[in-house]
Design brief:
Elements lengths: L2 H16 L9 H12 L11 E5 L5 H10 L2 E6 L2 H13 L5 E5 L12 E6 L8 H14 E12 L5 E4 L7 E4 L4 H4 L4 E10 L12 E9 L2 H4 L7
Parallel strand pairs: 1-2, 1-4, 2-3, 4-5
Antiparallel strand pairs: 5-9, 6-7, 8-9
Length: 231
């Protein structure tokens, strides 16, 4: 059984239970995006009418915060059914109307083409089977509008590493710089990046522990390709 089905059937719920307390805090990616929007308020045009998707949203805490502080319509997809039920209960209790959570995976996003102004890829790409990674990249690119912003939080190591996942020996952790999967295409430009570790907000000299949040801008075609009438 591959990691996708293991997370859908058991490990997604187990991961959520282990990290339930952290669910009350904003992720580093959400913090980074919040700071970026505050510095560049023009990108949200006041927030109204803008859509944001978080893949790997857990119980939706990030989305609730972002929807309320930037007037964004927020969507989340998450393999843990427990996390989705937990988040949807909070959304109902607080009568939040601009957040929707669904159970699913990154390689098959149930959203329309070019429907999102912001996409957050939470800390999950390191757990994907390698035959699922490019499907995830394609799906994130498909739903993100040109002129939109992609946020990636994951390990950030200069040399790819493969390790057995400590919570389940049937899953591997693949550590690499996931932003490079998008930056090979001139469509994407890295515009902001911060590096830290799981235990600290500071840079960690230990390669295995390095984590980053990156913001990529999806360029408009007319801005990156010059038109030439002659073939």
């Amino acid at each position: 059984m591959d990691s996708k089905h293991i997370f859908m059937e058991s490990e997604g719920d187990a991961y959520f239970e282990r990290n339930r307390q952290a669910e009350c805090s904003l992720s580093k990616a959400a913090q980074f995006l919040s700071e970026f929007i505050k510095k560049n308020p023009n990108i949200s045009s006041g927030g109204g009418g803008k859509n944001l998707l978080e893949v790997g949203c857990a119980g939706g805490h990030n989305l609730i915060y972002l929807s309320q502080n930037f007037d964004l319509k927020c969507y989340g997809i998450e393999p843990s059914q427990k996390a989705v039920e937990y988040g949807n209960n909070i959304i109902r209790q607080k009568e939040i109307t601009k957040v929707e959570l669904l159970c699913g995976t990154s390689d098959n996003l149930p959203y329309e083409d070019n429907s999102m102004d912001f996409v957050i890829l939470g800390f999950f790409m390191c757990y994907l089977n390698r035959n699922t990674v490019l499907k995830t990249v394609a799906e994130a690119d498909r739903v993100l509008k040109r002129g939109g912003f992609l946020v990636i939080q994951d390990f950030d190591v200069p040399i790819p590493y493969k390790r057995t996942y400590k919570h389940n020996s049937n899953i591997f952790t693949y550590k690499c710089d996931c932003a490079q999967l998008f930056l090979g295409d001139p469509t994407y430009t890295l515009i902001e990046k911060t590096t830290y570790s799981h235990s600290s907000s500071a840079f960690d000299p230990v390669i295995q522990k390095r984590v980053s949040s990156s913001i990529l801008y999806k360029e408009r075609i007319e801005d990156i390709y010059q038109f030439d009438k002659e073939v």
